[in-house]
Amino acid sequence: MKSAEIALRNFASTTNFLKRRFSSGDLSGEGFEDELENEGQPSGPQTKTDSNPVPTHSVSQSSDLTLNFRGSNTTSAPTSPHHSGVSSFLSRATSLTGSVTSTVQQIARTATNKDRQKILLVIDDHQTDWSKYFRGKRLQGEWDIRVEQAEFRDLTLASSSDSGSVVSIIGYDRSGSKVARSFRPDFVLIRQHIRCVREDYRDILLGLAFGNVKTLPNCSQGLFLPTSPHHSGVSSFLSRATSLTGSVTSTVQQIARTATNKDRQKILLVIDDHQTDWSKYFRGKRLQGEWDIRVEQAEFRDLTLASSSDSGSVVSIIGYDRSGSKVARSFRPDFVLIRQHIRCVREDYRDILLGLAFGNVKTLPNCSQAYNFQDRPWVFSHLIGIQKRLGKENFPLIEQTFYPNHREM
């Protein structure tokens, strides 16, 4: 900015010198007078004329520069072509001076003071120009904001516990040669994923943390904020459409109070007969004020199940439609309430219990309890263990005898 001001002053002084050099007073020298006098005399035979001759032609255009020779009050000689050229030169020089002055003033208003600036590094793709959001902004009214934007793949970094981090943005010039622009960021805004399928940029994050550079989100979180300013057009579109959706919104809100949100619901599977309607005990109830409770009820005999160690268990309830055809309704239960015996004389549903345990589905009683309590001898054996620790006086039991089958009795 200082060099531009010095150049402006030099140009202005040169222009003023030219104005003085080609002014009317400076053009009254002898050489120039003789030249004009020779131009006024004819080359052939001369005849006597009046003392005040009338010029053969009048001046058709006015000039900014006038010449007065020997203080004569007579009509001045016609304007010299050389003289008119000086006038046009001065006019062009004046306009050039004005344009240079306005340019230098504009540069002075927008120039960034390198000694009073903060550098913001935005790690994002170039679909969004982040510099426009900080253009003309200042921190505390004194510090300019310089925005540097690049993707993770274009960054290299060197950090020191004493001097902080130096970040370099790798790019290419017009000739295709690789060039690097280095700086010390004061703040980093992370708008890209640190890890993806084929790329891992944790080294950049660790370097910023080692250099104690402030980031958003901070380095310990290491998360990407999904909102990008180029999506802000969606919000402006929605704001313009608000007036058209006012009546629809009230209707939707009324429906939402009575309907179940499939994206915000938890499924409770109750394994019991249909003598008790368990859905009425959970109707209108919510978990943590946000999650609806959807109740599915069926008996063990109406259930089929498929479980995966990764995705959990998918339960299907087998039923019949009005035409008598078999239909299945499938879902992923979040919780199971067991209200039936797992084993009885003719039926054994341990496969359903094992499938729920394999899918890590929460149950009441839990799967280990339900499995342990399905055999009474197994339960009594644990009670005997407690009795041996506490003593018969403190934990009395009715004496029992176990046989593996009826043939051994």
UniProtKB/TrEMBL annotation:
Keywords: Phosphoprotein, Synapse. Gene3D superfamilies: 3.40.50.20. It is found in: Synapse. Its main location: other. It comes from the Eukaryota. SUPFAM superfamilies: PreATP-grasp domain (SSF52440). One of its GO terms (biological process) is neurotransmitter secretion. Residues 370-409 form the Synapsin ATP-binding domain. It holds the Pfam family Synapsin_C. One of its GO terms (cellular component) is synaptic vesicle membrane. This is Synapsin.
